[in-house]
Amino acid sequence: MAERTDTNLEGTDSVTKNAPTLAMVKAWFGREILPLEASLMQYLQHNWRNASDIADLRQEVYIQIYQAALQGFPEKPRQYLFTTARNLLSRRVQHERVIPIEAVADLDALNAASDAPGPDRVAVARDELRHLQAALDCLAPRVREAVVFGKIDGMTRAEIATRMGISEATVAQYLVEGIRSLIDIFYGELAALRRNA
């Protein structure tokens, strides 16, 4: 029987096409795919948030594998199985993100919440930023600079050291000193507020 390879099935390397019989597919499936069930279940549980869907997902993967095997056997069954599972999960995620246009035709009628924070949250956030700025202003200038670079700008110790022209050990010392001072400032104010209450 002549064989040829095809690269279109679920993105795997190649699939041997020779129109196997139903008995051949059943034997192949039992020999190559079913022993991988524990690994497949672990993969699905790790990559899908809804545990109640796992058994159904496994069955869908098996159906796709079985149907593809009727056309020809993949050269790498394990890789093919997990590629099929990954593709199924990707399609499921995309499907769940799609919202029918009818469902959102009139957003005002749904009283949909805006992502923008309300005026009270904006006021609280601005107050917290002013408070943080006042606390930062209490730090020694070089310590403040290191804390801002590291904790606000997200720079690494090596980047801070280069930027400030100091050693990484000094940067580490400044960061520890700065964070401790900020904690003391915030907890000191909190304690004072509790005493006055």
Number of helices: 9
Number of domains: 2
Q: What's the architecture of the largest domain in CATH terms?
A: Orthogonal Bundle
**Number of E-state strands:** 3
Could you say which structural class the secondary elements and strand pairing correspond to?
A: mainly alpha
Physical arrangement of strands within the biggest beta sheet: 1-2-3
Distance between the termini: 89 Å
Overall mean pLDDT = 80
Give helix and strand order, one letter per element, not per position.
EEHHHEHHHHHH
Determine Rg (CA atoms, Å). Answer: 30 Å
SSE arrangement:
Layout: E1 4-6, E2 15-17, H1 22-33, H2 37-47, H3 54-69, E3 72-74, H4 77-97, H5 107-110, H6 119-137, H7 141-152, H8 157-164, H9 168-196
Antiparallel strand pairs: 1-2, 2-3
Helix pairs in contact: 1-3, 2-3, 2-4, 3-4, 7-9, 8-9
Please tell me about this protein's structure.
- The protein has 197 residues and is mainly α.
- It folds into 2 domains: 94 residues, Rna Polymerase Sigma Factor, Chain: A (Orthogonal Bundle); 74 residues, Orthogonal Bundle (Arc Repressor Mutant, subunit A), CATH 1.10.10.
- 67% of the residues lie in helices and 5% in strands.
- It contains 9 helices and 3 strands, in the order ββαααβαααααα.
- The protein has a 3-stranded antiparallel sheet with strand order 1-2-3, with no helix packed on it.
- The protein is elongated and about 80 Å long.
- The N terminus is likely disordered.
